[in-house]
Amino acid sequence: MSKVCLRVVVSGRVQGVWFRRFTQQKAEAHGVLGWVRNLADGRVEALLCGDEINVRHVEAWMSQGPELANVAELLSEEQPWQADYADFQVLEDAEA
């Protein structure tokens, strides 16, 4: 299987609805490594690394998000492979 990293940014009603925690659960369930965090502008950003099929599953889930979310847009771009993650973390909010 090919390995891939994706930087994903979601906008809409994605903060205050447990988006990061559910993303962490989905990533862990699919063996995806990386992180997720809130951005100061109200969006959520994630770095997803792992087997491409599993990363794409998490990306697809993020396009909908948890029940209370309302995802308006999902942007993703491939990033260079980063093997330095041992798990999937919820990071502190990004500074403005």
Automatic annotation (TrEMBL):
The active site is at residues 20, 38. InterPro entries: Acylphosphatase, Acylphosphatase-like_dom, Acylphosphatase-like_dom_sf, Acylphosphatase_CS. Coiled coil: none annotated. SUPFAM superfamilies: Acylphosphatase/BLUF domain-like. It comes from the Bacteria. It catalyses: an acyl phosphate + H2O = a carboxylate + phosphate + H(+). It holds the Pfam family Acylphosphatase. Its EC number is 3.6.1.7. GO terms for molecular function: acylphosphatase activity. Keywords: Hydrolase. Residues 5-92 form the Acylphosphatase-like domain. NCBIfam families: PRK14451.1. Belongs to the acylphosphatase family. This is Acylphosphatase.
